[in-house]
Design brief:
Elements: E1 2-6, H1 10-20, E2 26-30, H2 33-43, E3 47-50, H3 59-69, E4 75-79, H4 84-93, E5 97-100, H5 107-112
Length: 114
């Protein structure tokens, strides 16, 4: 499985990588929505783990753009926002899932369909 982790915080990307390491050894990282789009086009990952708030292009905008051109893309929003408004915005953008950063241990089962 090929994964793309997108978060503007290097420590958060490292933590997510640690949590999902057993799911995939093929992990690409990005720091912004713009990098997410470029990396998706280049690598066609099986899953994207996308933060919502990032410098430059945010994760919701990047998700909309990826899903517009690649409707089969599977994107899980990984965020600190535990709010119905953000969850709805993620769903409307085309996200396949929504995981709070405090619950990263949920990621492997989502990625593996368990």
């Amino acid at each position: 499985m090929k994964l793309l982790i997108v978060d503007d915080n290097a420590d958060t990307r490292k933590l997510i990588r640690t949590v999902v390491r057993k799911c995939s050894e093929d992990i690409i990282e990005g720091r912004s929505g713009t990098e997410a789009i470029a990396s998706y086009i280049q690598y066609k990952p099986d899953w994207v783990l996308m933060d919502i708030e990032m410098l430059g292009m945010d994760g919701l905008t990047a998700t909309k753009m990826i899903k517009r051109d690649y409707p089969e893309a599977k994107i899980i929003m990984v965020t600190m926002h535990d709010d119905a408004r953000w969850r709805l915005a993620a769903q409307e953008a085309g996200a396949s899932g929504y995981v709070l950063k405090e619950n990263l241990t949920q990621l492997p089962s989502l990625l593996l369909g368990k």
